[in-house]
Amino acid sequence: MDTAKKKNKIKNIFIVTILFLFLNLAFNNCGQPGEIKMQIHSSTPTPDNSSAAEPSIPPVTPPETVTPSPGLVIEPPPSTVVIPTPAPPSEPNPIFVVDEFKEMNYSFNVSESEKVDILFVVDNSISMNYEQSNMADRFHRFLDSLNGLDWQIGIVTTDVSDPYASKSDGKLLIFDRVKSYILNSKMDKVVVEQAFSETIQQNNNGSSYEQGIFATYRFLERDIERSEKLIRDGSSFSVVIVSDADETPWENAQGKPIVKLRNKPDELVKFLKNTWAGKKFQFHSIVVKDKDEKCLQESQNEGFGLKYIYLSNLTGGIVGSVCEKDYGSQLKFMGEKVKDLVKSVVLECEPQDTNQDHIADVKIQSSLSFNGVGQIEIDRIEKRSLFFKGDLPAGQYTVNYYCKKP
């Protein structure tokens, strides 16, 4: 009986020893995923192929050597798989389109006073009686918009057929009431209105080849030589044309138009820029608007004013309708644009945003001795027109901006 108890006790000790070895082995292999090494002590040395020494297991001497049962299987602990945390994606570098924009500069002068010089170009062909009368009756609305400005006004006709005639080829018409070719803001307002009304209404026996752009070009060439000039230094320059036809060049024997350099809108702008550097310029049109068939049929109007409309759009001007029953509102609007021109410039393109901050990249430099750049504020940008806040001090200014390359 004592022998059976002794064997039973030895068996229990053996099982406890085996469990202790298993737990010790599992603990020593913790942190080495996927690999379990068992160290067996024997009289024959086992070669060590690892570069690092394995942790030793303290020997446990069983009270008696007992061979474990063949049915006992010791399973290794499951391997641990460590998944590395992926690094956060880096921010993509901003993409800039190289060589997409062209840097532009526009220089202009501001005089001590707000000077505006205005040229009216009137169609004096036979079909223009109504339009001339309408202009005469509503001119005061235009004049009212110029309050506070130092303005000058002159008139030419669209007839360029005779370089020797007094009312042709870009020659200023004389205002008989004041015995002058130029009206100005120093004159009595009532006298100015009467003089303009009398002069704008012509006998309408002018050439049927209405050439308002050509006439404006010739006026500019003539004004350079005049002693009493309409265009002054430091002023802005505005043209208002009234016609029921488009620019109509002469024709050759085959009926093909002979378009000369002076008939071309772009050439007019180029000549103005080359002759009066920094001159602010707008061209306003009272014409038959594009595709306005109803207006075209009224009063025997001759054609859509496409070249004049193009020039108005090119310079930031206004396009009015020759068929309006009352010219008052559109003349008032044009007068306001003339006044705005003192506080604005028209650029060659709509300024672009090159750095993608949703703001057009525009810088203004000034020749003023004080920190002029810091005192110049942009009020708004409307397509190609740049408007300033308040009055600009007299001086030289340069606008730096960017256009898209074609």
Characterization of the model:
The protein has helices spanning 2-28, 129-144, 189-200, 212-225, 265-275, 293-297, 306-315, 328-342, 372-375, and strands spanning 101-110, 115-122, 150-157, 183-184, 236-242, 281-287, 319-321, 344-346, 363-366, 378-382, 385-388, 395-404. The N and C termini lie far apart (112 Å). The longest helix has 27 residues, at 2-28. Helices cover 28% and strands 17% of the residues. With 406 residues, the protein is α/β, with parallel strands linked by helices.
Low-confidence stretches: 31-46, 50-54
Distance between the termini: 112 Å
Return Rg in Å.
46 Å
CATH topology of the largest domain: Rossmann fold
Could you say what the CATH architecture of the largest domain is? 3-Layer(aba) Sandwich
Number of strands: 12
Mean pLDDT, all residues: 83
Principal-axes geometry comes out as elongated
Decide which structural class fits the backbone.
Answer: alpha/beta
What series of H and E elements makes up the topology?
HEEHEEHHEHEHHEHEEHEEE
Q: Could you estimate the helical fraction of the residues in percent? A: 25-40%
CATH class membership of the largest domain: Alpha Beta
Work out the helix count: 9
Most strands sheet: 6 strands, mixed
Strand content: 15-25%
Adjacency order of strands in the biggest sheet: 4-3-2-5-6-7
How many structural domains can be distinguished in the coordinates?
A: 2
- Annotated CATH homologous superfamily of the largest domain: von Willebrand factor, type A domain
